[in-house]
């Protein structure tokens, strides 16, 4: 065809994490259906550095930018390429797609499909495999035929009978048994020698077999849905459909790399679900609940995160996980091993960013717009240290849709700064504990209360909403965060997509802000956390803004956890404050008057949050929801924690399927969708506005 032209030219190719992007000379050979590349144009007469067969390949423009695209070969090999501009990318993508389509169709014409092909799932099973004991009626040939057959005109597809689904389920159980035998055989290999259980090809085989069984289970679920939809019209009123749940859970074949007794594991998981009342389908009201701060008690939980222990013991789990991941892969749906979990939900982690409520309240006490912006920046930068709970890269629980977390803070009014330069509390942590006890006897007029509520408003994508307010000071903050995680080779990156809004109602000011990205580095040794990216804080009314850079450590040299920033007046472009230091250590603030202030975050006092006891919490409040997982982690029982975690996740999946099947939309409890964001249903700015309107009407 006219469009089948051989093209060549320079493109950037992503090589690896060390060397990154490299210019390479690419040649599209339409006749052979090959994409080849060379170090440069001069070496074109030599053997190519790399070659991809385009038959069956997928050419995908990237949504990262307008220059990048990927070529995914049928063999599994992938080239990540970048053109100089969008026009050049489109030229390469269109020519590659035409060549790919031509050679893929040619293979189809030269290799017509077989008329019929059948196989027995149990033909290669071991003596202990369930496949050896199947009934004579369970003939695989009658259920699995691969081929193309046309139905006679006018004939309807016969409705699959329920007993057929039962038979299919039985046959899938046989396949699951064989897959378990395969895994046992691999995991029983020695950890050293010529062929080990950590062999990369064997790890890939384990991952591929797992993916295959997951795919079959998804297909089986589709059959269940089709059967239900075909039968729906003939069912009597009030009849419910009992779904044929898999007899064997595929969610966790690998527990820290150890060989397992699978039947015992299944029975144990079932017993966990029975003892857990929260694992039942949720029939709760979604009406907002007013939390009485008087029911909240000072938090006595002190879940200091231990290190990950000997990472060598968990290496097989990590390697198995890595064998399933590709560079840039979205990790939203990837189940991570339990041993890396923190003992708190992500919603509670957002609350821990508010652990310095004295600095939060002090923002509105600033005498000028400049002071208030600087105080907000000071508060913002001091919030990450306590929110992270240490340097080890552990991961909080993924909140379940509908999960909520409530807490509050009380602090004496005398602890809140009113003048510039005294923003930071001088109380040590031990003194702070004494102050907290003294609060119990104080009257309401002697302290401020900051209330906090968070809710997981969406599961796919995972979006959390959180809101905090101090009614006495007429200030509140509302934010929504979508956590997007990606695999980056030896790191995991989490982008915090969303926006926060701080409202100072006494001054009529609103401050918008964003959050930095987070990275878990060195995931095969001792994982550690760093923050990265540029965030902006802006107040349109006053014309003040702040630009803050969280610097990731360079490959060679450089400091860890470095942060720099500046506050300026946009109208005059005057910098009024500069900041530098480490976000988890010491920060240095330099003001326009020449004054410099140092803040040691490790010595900064922390106000303990107040939470309701577990017995007073609702079943979807974070601590009660995850209590069995948390208790197991405290006891060091990773297997039991995994089973409790799986029970929660299975319930969430089942309820999501039910909503899809019944076309029932999810209703949030505390947050409402407004445009691209989520807003608390009763924010302080609405309450204050309503009170002011009522007072005006009264007058």
UniProtKB/TrEMBL annotation:
It is found in: Endomembrane system; Endosome; Golgi apparatus. Residues 4-101 form the PH domain. Residues 104-136 are annotated as: Disordered. Pfam families: Oxysterol_BP (PF01237), PH (PF00169). One of its GO terms (biological process) is lipid transport. SMART domains: PH. Residues 117-136 have a biased composition (Polar residues). GO terms for cellular component: cytosol; endosome; Golgi apparatus; membrane. Belongs to the OSBP family. This is Oxysterol-binding protein. The gene is Osbpl11.
């Amino acid at each position: 065809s006219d469009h089948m032209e051989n093209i060549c030219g320079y493109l950037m190719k992503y090589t690896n994490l060390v060397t990154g992007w490299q210019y390479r000379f690419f040649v599209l050979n339409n006749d052979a259906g090959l994409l080849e590349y060379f170090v440069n144009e001069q070496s074109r007469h030599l053997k190519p550095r790399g070659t991809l067969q385009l038959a069956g390949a997928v050419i995908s423009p990237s949504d990262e930018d307008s220059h990048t695209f990927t070529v995914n070969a049928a063999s599994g090999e992938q080239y990540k390429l970048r053109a100089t501009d969008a026009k050049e990318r489109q030229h390469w993508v269109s020519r590659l797609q035409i060549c790919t389509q031509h050679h893929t169709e040619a293979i189809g014409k030269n290799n017509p499909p077989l008329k019929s092909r059948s196989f027995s799932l149990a033909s290669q099973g071991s003596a202990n495999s369930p496949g050896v004991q199947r009934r004579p009626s369970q003939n695989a040939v009658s259920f699995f035929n691969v081929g193309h057959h046309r139905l006679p005109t006018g004939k309807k597809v016969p409705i699959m009978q329920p007993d057929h689904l039962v038979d299919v389920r039985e046959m899938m159980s046989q396949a699951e048994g064989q897959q378990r035998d395969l895994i046992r055989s691999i995991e029983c290999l020695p950890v050293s020698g010529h062929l080990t259980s950590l062999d990369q090809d064997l790890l890939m085989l384990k991952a591929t077999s797992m993916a295959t069984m997951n795919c079959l289970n998804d297909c089986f679920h589709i059959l269940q849905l089709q059967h239900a939809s075909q039968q729906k019209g003939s069912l009597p009123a009030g009849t419910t459909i009992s779904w044929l749940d898999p007899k064997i859970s595929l969610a966790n074949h690998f527990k820290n790399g150890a060989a397992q007794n699978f039947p015992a594991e299944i029975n144990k998981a079932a017993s966990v679900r029975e003892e857990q009342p929260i694992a039942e389908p949720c029939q709760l009201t979604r009406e907002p609940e007013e939390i009485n701060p008087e029911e909240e008690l000072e938090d006595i939980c002190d879940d200091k995160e231990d290190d990950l222990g000997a990472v060598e013991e968990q290496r097989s789990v990590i390697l198995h996980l890595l064998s399933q991941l590709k560079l840039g892969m979205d990790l939203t749906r990837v189940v991570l091993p339990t041993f890396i979990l923190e003992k708190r939900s992500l919603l509670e982690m957002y609350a821990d960013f508010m652990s310095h409520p004295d600095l939060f309240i002090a923002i509105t006490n600033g005498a000028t717009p400049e002071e208030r912006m600087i105080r907000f920046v000071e508060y913002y930068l001091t919030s990450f240290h306590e929110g992270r709970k240490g340097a080890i890269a552990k991961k909080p629980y993924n909140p379940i849709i509908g999960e909520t977390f409530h807490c509050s803070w009380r602090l004496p009014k005398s602890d809140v700064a009113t003048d510039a330069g005294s923003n930071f509390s001088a109380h040590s942590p031990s003194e702070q504990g004494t102050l907290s006890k003294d609060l119990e006897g104080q009257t309401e007029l002697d302290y401020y209360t900051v209330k906090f509520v968070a809710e997981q408003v969406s599961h796919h994508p995972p979006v959390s909403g959180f809101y905090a307010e101090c009614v006495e000071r007429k200030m509140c903050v509302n934010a929504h965060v979508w956590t997007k995680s990606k695999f980056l080779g030896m790191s995991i990156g989490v982008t915090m997509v969303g926006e926060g809004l701080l409202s100072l109602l006494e001054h009529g000011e609103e401050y918008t802000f964003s959050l930095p990205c987070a990275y878990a580095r060195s995931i095969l040794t001792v994982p550690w956390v760093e923050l990265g990216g540029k965030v902006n804080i802006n107040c349109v009314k006053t014309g003040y803004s702040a630009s803050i850079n969280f610097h990731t450590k360079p490959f060679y040299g450089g400091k860890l956890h470095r942060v720099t920033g500046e506050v300026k007046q946009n109208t005059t472009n005057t910098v009024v404050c500069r900041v530098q230091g480490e976000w988890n250590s010491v920060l240095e603030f330099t003001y326009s008057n020449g004054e410099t202030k140092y803040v040691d975050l490790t010595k900064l006092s922390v106000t303990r949050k107040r939470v309701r006891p577990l017995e007073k919490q609702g079943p979807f409040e974070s601590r009660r929801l995850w209590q069995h997982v948390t208790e197991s982690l405290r006891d060091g029982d990773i297997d039991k924690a995994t089973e409790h975690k799986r029970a929660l996740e299975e319930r969430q999946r089942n309820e999501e399927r039910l909503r899809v099947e019944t076309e029932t939309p999810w209703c949030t409890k505390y947050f409402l969708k407004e445009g691209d964001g989520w807003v608390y249903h009763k924010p302080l700015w609405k309450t204050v506005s309503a009170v002011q309107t009522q007072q005006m009407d009264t007058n």
